[in-house]
């Protein structure tokens, strides 16, 4: 049995959900079957995070690079997302979860954007947990877009470059208003961030597991949180003083 301190759970967990394709291959199934099984893991994880009183959960659902996958697989992924939204919106409302979407959503088809807008609006007053879906998301694109926005403000609104602070920069990211992730989990045994929350993860704790995403369970989540609770987070400080190398 995995024991965690409920008073020291991370406020924001972000997950790179990797391994659907390898799960399907392992079970001699098509990749789409792996994505369907991965959707079940999403439901389990959202439910577990809500029960653990996690304030914010971000799921890397579809990267900007995923558009390069075969059309059939992309269509299947979008169909699964539509089904998830249709089935889960009532549950999000019942459990007090608000939905937010980050990424280049303009690339999604109109019907999906409409569903997302409806889900965000329907859950906007919920306050128990924030569920963030990173869709058509790439961190480098996010940072570049923030630079473009600030450049326009410098040129058109008289913002002086020396006035641009970290806080102002963050206000121009997709994640404006969200807390930085305390814990980033990646499944499937890969040890990289894959263009995910590169600015926001500056002081995040990273946790890698060999478990394939469709097999990711509540116990696996608890194991990641238990590991997080063993770590000492210094945020660049040593004994209260700024670290200098």
Written overview of the protein:
The longest helix is centred in the middle third of the chain and has 24 residues, at about 70-95. The chain contains 7 helices and 8 strands, in the order βααβαβαβααββαββ. The model has no long low-confidence stretch (mean pLDDT about 95). The chain is an alpha/beta fold and about 240 residues long. The strands form 2 sheets. It has a 6-stranded parallel sheet, sandwiched between helices. The protein has a two-stranded antiparallel ribbon with strand order 7-8. The protein is globular, with a radius of gyration of 19 Å. The termini are far apart. The protein has helices spanning about 20-25, 30-50, 70-95, 110-120, 140-155, 165-170, 220-230; strands spanning about 10-15, 55-65, 95-100, 130-135, 185, 205-210, 235-240, 240.
């Amino acid at each position: 049995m995995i024991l965690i301190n409920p008073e020291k759970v991370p406020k924001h967990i972000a997950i790179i959900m990797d391994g659907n394709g390898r799960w399907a291959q392992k079970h001699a199934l098509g990749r789409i079957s792996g994505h369907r099984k991965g959707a079940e893991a999403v439901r389990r994880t959202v439910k577990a995070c809500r029960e653990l009183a996690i304030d914010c959960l971000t799921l890397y659902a579809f990267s900007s690079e995923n558009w390069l996958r075969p059309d059939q697989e992309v269509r299947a992924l979008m169909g699964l997302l539509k089904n998830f939204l249709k089935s889960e919106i009532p549950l999000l409302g019942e459990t007090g979860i608000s939905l937010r979407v980050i990424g280049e959503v303009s690339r999604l088809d109109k019907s999906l954007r409409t569903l997302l807008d409806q889900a965000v609006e329907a859950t906007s007053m919920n306050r128990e947990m924030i569920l963030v879906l990173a869709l058509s998301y790439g961190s480098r694109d996010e940072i570049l877009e923030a630079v473009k926005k600030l450049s326009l403000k410098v040129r058109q609104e008289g913002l002086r470059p020396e006035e641009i602070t970290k806080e102002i920069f963050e206000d121009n990211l997709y994640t404006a208003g969200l807390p930085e992730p305390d814990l980033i989990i990646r499944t499937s045994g890969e040890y990289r961030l894959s263009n995910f929350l590169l600015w926001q993860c500056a002081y995040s704790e990273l946790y890698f597991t060999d478990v394939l995403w469709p097999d990711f369970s509540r116990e696996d989540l608890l194991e990641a949180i238990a590991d997080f609770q063993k770590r000492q987070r210094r945020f660049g400080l040593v004994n209260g003083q700024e670290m200098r190398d």
